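Page 47, continued from p. 46.
Same chain as before, 608 aa.
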Amino acid sequence: MSNDYASPAQRKYSVPEGVVSILSYERNPQHGIQPLTARAQQWQQFKRISGTTEFTDYFWPFCTDPDRYEILIKLILNLFVLDDHMETPYGDIDRRMPEAETIFGQLYRVYDKLLQPTDRADQPEYVSFHAWKPYVLGAYAIYDKVFTAYNDVQKHRFIDIWRSWTDGMVGECAHLQHNKQFDNLDEFFEVREKSVAILMIYHLIEYAENLFVPELEWRNPTVQQLLKQLSQANGRGDKGPSAVYNSVAVLTQMQNISLTESMTHWSNEFKNLETIIVELSDEILAADWASPDIRRFVRSAMYATGGHWKVSTMLDRIASYDNVVTLPSTTSNPCHVDNTCNCTVDEIEVICGDEITDTSIKRTFNEIKMKKYLDAFELYDNHLITGLPDYIFYDVSFKTMNVFNVKTLTMVGENAFASSVNTTTSLRISSCSLKSSESLFKAISQLVRLTSVNLSDNQLEEIPDNAFGPNQHLLTMVILDRNRLKILADNSFTLQSVNGSQYNPLRISLKLNQIAQIGDQAFAGLDRPVTLDLSFNNLTQLTAKTFAHLLSYEPSKIIVKGNHVNCICGLKWVYVNSTMKPKMSGPLRCDDKRYFSSLTDTDFKNCT
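Result:
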């Protein structure tokens, strides 16, 4: 353990500001499915195989059928075997086109055989071990298990998607062998997004969860656009060392720019992709035509993306790469320290598991004598902690704090984060049982460097006056989705803008609450562009007194789908204002079942 802990490590290339994910499901609930993983593996001594199977956790965490889950593990392993044979010097293909055409040609025959398993005499086609590679025979056995579980529509969908992936693998091999030089990024990623198998991953959600997305819904332009954007996001940000940094390097060389400029470009690119993905998924979930299965499919795809994001992509990895430190330990096995938080430290992330209590957390950090500034604190899947009391971290500070799925956590002390008031930039306490309390928001309001706060999936019923401090002008994201909020009182959001922060857009998400009333002065203190998401609440009125000031800044907007608002007369102030109307994002359905966008001058002729 080094003694050089006076300040955080210096980076050769600075991290772009705002490298923070906006996806609602930025952490994957993989831990709930780990018993299935352990049962299916039974080979923990083979660490590479064990590690590879964790992809199954991330992509299909809601699979409850042990047999299907085991098939998915086998499928992931087989994909990596095929990938290794294509790319590695010890593989059968090693980026050589003749070998690629031969072996992937066998995969094309697999697809033909799945569609037509018998010959003209209605007998199964015989395939010799000497004719196909063993791992291709294995692929056939695995794919057949998935294939037979599907209906006819899904079977043809499966074949189309897997053929496209195989085309991408062969195309990528051709580019590698001929050292192809690309003129633009779109051309570079056209093959890459096929060969990383992302669309296959999403499609297999149907198998994992026993769903059927009807063909009309699957072909719906909005669904196809969502799948395209998800594939782009994952294809361009998959596997930190493999693709993200390749993406950075490719752009640097292609446009002759610096690494810092390239990192900034990709940071902005991913943030734009996330915004589009969230909007498209919300639109599908709110659509009248959406069946229960497409809604579940979309939610699971978002979880799969968010879970993969957490461990794999630029948004998290660029922001977290740093020196590795080890906190004090009382045992040689650092992952099973007796009731302390020094169980796992990875890239200066302190992770506390399910046997930790608030007392042991406090004791652990009280004993740290040297390292006082850490990158991240994580606490998840715990069933013993009921609160984060005052001064729980003693004088150890964190850049980010993430508390997830601690169902017994109901309170946070006013001084719980006292040691991090000048260091924490991101705070997440979600999927817990937090109750509304002044101490919680007083604790948050002291974090003067905070840029994002996520309190989603709790039991908050109100937001107190001046919930966020007057010095928190750096805040750009506040997420309070899926709580029990019913009223937003005056002065709920009174953030001040100083030192140019009036130019920093702020996103406030209040989706899926029970909000029926908003005070006229609830957002009066916001004097900068705001994206306010009020989707799926119980709102019937949207008044000019409440929202006109907020919408006066460019580019501000309010997302109000999933409410049933009195549009006639109630929204005349929006209808008659050509600059306001585009800022009311929807689709907004009125209380008379019509869409606001369909209203005409005649509808408002009797309004004063």
